[in-house]
Structures are given as C-alpha cells and as structure tokens.
Here is the input.
Amino acid sequence: MATPPGTPLASAWGNHARPNELRRALDGAQSRIPVRPAGHPAWRRVAATRLAALQRQATQERGTAWPQPLVSHYARYFRDGNRTAYEGLVAARQQRLTRAVVMALAAADGGEAEPWLDEVVDGAYLLCEQSSWSWAAHDDVFRRSGDVVPDQGRPFLDLGAGEVAAQLAWLDHVLGARLDSRAPGLRRRLREETRQRVIEPFLDRLDWHWLGLDGDVHNWNPWIHSNLIAGALFLLDDPRLQARVVARCIEGLDRFLASIPADGAIDEGFAYWWNGAGRALEGLALLEDATGGVLGAGLPVVRELVAFPHRMHIGGPWFLNVADGPARAAASLPWDMLHRWAVRLGDDDAARHAASMLAGAPDAAAGLGRVLHSLFLGASAPERVQGVKDTFPLVPFTYLPSVQIMVARETAGTTRGLLLAAKGGHNGEHHNHRDVGSVVVAVDGTPLLVDAGQPTYTAKTFGPDRYDIRAMQSTWHNVPAPFGMEQGTGSGFAAEILEAPTAEHPCLRLALGAAYGLQPHQWIRTSALDRATGRVTIADHWDLPAGGHGEDQHTAVKHRPASDVDITFLAAGTVRVGPAGIADIHPAGLPGTDSGGAAASLRGAALRWEPGTAVVLVDEWHLDDPLLSSVWGPKLTRLRFRAPILSGAAGAFTLTVEATP
Here is the structure.
C-alpha cells in the first residue's frame, strides 16, 4: 500500500516514516505536543474574554439532559433522506463535550474543577455508549443488508468516526490524569472503543474509498488521516501498533499532497479547504511536534496551499465559492492555525489575512483539537498566534490554471470598486456543481452576481438525483443555456482555455461548447475586468448547429427544443429591471445590511446591454433552506437574457457591469 517514491512525504522523509524508525521517533511524543495537559500555567492565562462565550453556554448546559441521537433519527436518512435530524444531535453532543473540557482546563484544582470533570466524564462515556460513530449518510449498512440501524460488528470508518476518535484523544491528552482520579476505568474504555471502532477497521481494510488508492483523492483523506494520527498518539499505548498506524496515515496523507497541483488550488473551493488542505496542515504539524522535528513539515507543496484562502477573498466575510461551499466564511474556522503556517513560511499576505480574520474566541463547532490549539497557543505564545490586526491584503489578481479560476480586483489593497471571478474547469470536480464558465461579480467587497452555493445536505445530495437540486444546476448558475440546455456531468464536460488572463490583462476567454455536449468552439465566453474604465464585461458569442441539439443518451444534457438561448445571471440583494438595456442590483436585503441609512449608502451594480438583443425574464428563488437564506437572505433573483437564434444559428450578447455612483 506504500505511496510510490517521488511523492512529497516519501521524498522528504524516506525511511524516517517507516514503522521501525517511527517507533524511535515517537518515543515520548506526548511530552513534545505544544498543547499541554491540565495544570500547565498557560491554561490559567487564557483571557476571560476568549472563554466567555464557551463558559456562558457550558454553564447553561451543565445539569441538563445531554442531546440524545436516537435510532429513529439515524433511520431517517434511509427513510426520507434527512441528514440533519441525526447529525445535528451528534454535533450538539460533541460541542457540549468540547465546552466541558475547556471549562475543566480553565478551572482551578479541587472543588471548582470537579463538576466540569463530571460533565466531561458523562459526555465521553455517552460517546462510548453511542451505537455508531459514523454518520448515517456514510454508513454502508443499508446498502449491504437493508438495515436502518448501525451494525456494531462492522463499524464504518468515516468523517464522523474520525472526529469522535480525535475528540476522545485530545481530551485524554489534556485531562488524562484528572480522569484517572475522577473516573477510574474511563480511559481504558476510551482506548477499547477507539481501537475497535477506528483503529482495527483502518488497519484491516483497504477498500475505504477515502484512502485514494484508486487515484481519486478528496478531502476525506486528510480529514480522517489527521484525526487518526491524534487517536494513535494519545490512545494507543502499544508502541508497535502506534507506529504502524501513524505510518499508514503518512502514506495516506502523501497521496493527498501528491494530488495537489503546483498552484495549490483546491477544486472543492475555499470552504472545503479547511476540512481538506487545512486538515493536512494540522496533521503535518502534529507529526513534526510528536517526532521532535524528525518528520519536518516545511514542504514546498505547503506554501501554495497556505496562500489559497486569501487568494479567494472577496471582502469582509465573503469568499469566492465554487462547488458545495457557502460564500460567507463560517465563524468556526481556525484562522490561528493558518496564521502559524503563514508566519513560519514567511508569507506576509497569508499572515495578514489570517490575522485580520482571527475571532476573539474559538467556536466549539471547530472541534476540540482546534479549540485547544487556539486557546493554549494564544495564551502561551501570543506572538505566534495573534499577530497584529492588520488590513486584509486584498491581492489584485490570482489565476490558478489547474482549476481555471481567475480572481481580479479593480484596485489592490481595497475592496472599493469591482471584483470579477471567472472559472472554467469541468463538471467532474469534487462536490461539483454544473458551473463551467460561471462568473461572480462583487462591488465594494459584496458579491451581487453570485453562486448560490451549498444547500442543506440530504440523501439526494450525493445520489443519482443530485442535479435535480436547483443549486447544482447550470440553469441556476451564471452561465449560458444554448437551446435551454443543462450542462453535462463528468470531466468531459469542460472548458477549453482560449486566452489565459494576466495580472495586467485580467481576461479569461473560454470555449464552453463541450460543457453542453457541443463542439467546444460553438460557444465562446470572454470575461474581463477593465480597471481603466471600472467595468466588467461578460461577452458571449455562439455559432450553434442549425435545428437545435438532440439529447445524447450517454450524457446528462437536457434541452428545450427551442430556437433561442438563455444567458443566466443569479443576483443577490434587491434587483430592479428598468428600461430596455438597464438593470440595477443593490445589496439591500443581504444579511449584514439593514433598511436604514447604512444600507442606503452601499453601492450596487449597474447592468447594461444593447437594447433589443435579448428579452429579460425574471425569476425569484424564495429560499426556504436555512443554509442558503443565512447567506443570501430571503431570496435570490435569476435574470435570464433570452436571445433569439437568427439565420445561421450564430449570435452574440454582451453584459457590462459597473458600480453605481
């Protein structure tokens, strides 16, 4: 199962990553982990302001009934496709446990700590008693047997199971001695459950899809492997077994790092960076600490990974979202981790950006390991974590050729003015939406022509009916629809680069025909930002086959037998379509704006096109999905520019976007 020589970790670490060498390198590993156990003076120095929110909720929870995920919640996924009923309760249980661990660490020895230790003991034991650590949406029990209850004899190792193992590992690391005193026998139970549910399935089976042995490496790989490293370091007392597990995890991480393109792009986008690339960075740092630097983590591939988040920044909380990702950054992201990496690598832009995003207090939703790092390192070495609050770097231009994504800003260092993001790519990307050729346009750091992003996950999300979901369809992205067609699914439905952008000339010219099962050059889209005039231009030119396009039984392409095309733009905020050739978008109505003077002072976008070239159809998408409405407010508005195909099936349409005065 070893990764071939020449991959990043194999090249850098060689024999040091093999089990026999690892046994020696990992001897005494826990004493080298920067996050120290309870009783260390740094825990007493954690600022009260950073603990306030966690303490407030933990105090309210203590003494109440714990969240109780039931088999009926688990079974709902198989019955009606609902994921949140079960996963929400599991997350609530684990977040409560994280808060209890923090309070036990912050409490003084003796009577003040005992109630919090009891809370930790109860929460940890509930996880041990929980029939399954995996999430129902991932478990193969129904597919194998038709059962809708977990099979305890065949535990499924998924993201959920890895998260539980890591949480138990970190709480054992920081509270182990106190747990021995308060609840003798608990730590033995933690080890037994982790070994049976996670370690043994990991070592015994090679058919886990997330291992990447088939060449398809995605974010599950580093997420699970990095959690297993924590589990092995803190919950395995047999040095041989520990080294074997860590060696296997290194092989897995190496496959992920080997899959990263030279430009550091993540095709799953900014949101999934944190639970893919970000998890890999955490795993590398943990290995370096545990081995005392024998497994050094300063690898060339890391530098480009660290730069990806700030390169996708639009302004404030807004980031370019592609695939299954929201456009607003989650509150629980561990920016301190990214800041430490950026400082280490000397990436000033990444460090400034991470420092500017740092929250005052960690969120339990981030997971126990991330919360502990944020609190402890912030207290013991503030210069390494907090940095100086600075302005965002707001880089003027990024182009990532591996995913064909361009982000261009009107003026470097400020959100003022226009930002254009445009992508090519293909429709076989991880967490793919049919978005080949899509654009996002922002004014003053707020996106107004947008990608709806990720709706709440259900059974449909990753099943054969995925593209029945509106948010995944090309007709609800900022792309054309020749003859009303949907784009197809798969890597063959792709863009061809005709002109790559440069920093001086941010213009991405794409042949999009193949995304619809047409000849590539039958549809050309040019997306450009003209900094001199303060204008974005999206120009479409087509030369389609006469008589329309028949459905190909081998693709997912659908079409409307029509003699026209639609060119779609999805708008956030308040939309007004004026006289022929004019429309305006204002950010009023977006979360974070209000109806008073602040909203009125915000600038919007003015859309212009040549009158008579298209009829404008307006559709309102009223958002009843809380994940979407939390980002965009009550609705999104689709503008469909319907242009007739004249003789010869050729035509053109150009939309310009400017900031309103």
User: Anything to note?
Assistant: The radius of gyration is 26 Å. Residues 201 and 285 are 25 Å apart (CA to CA).
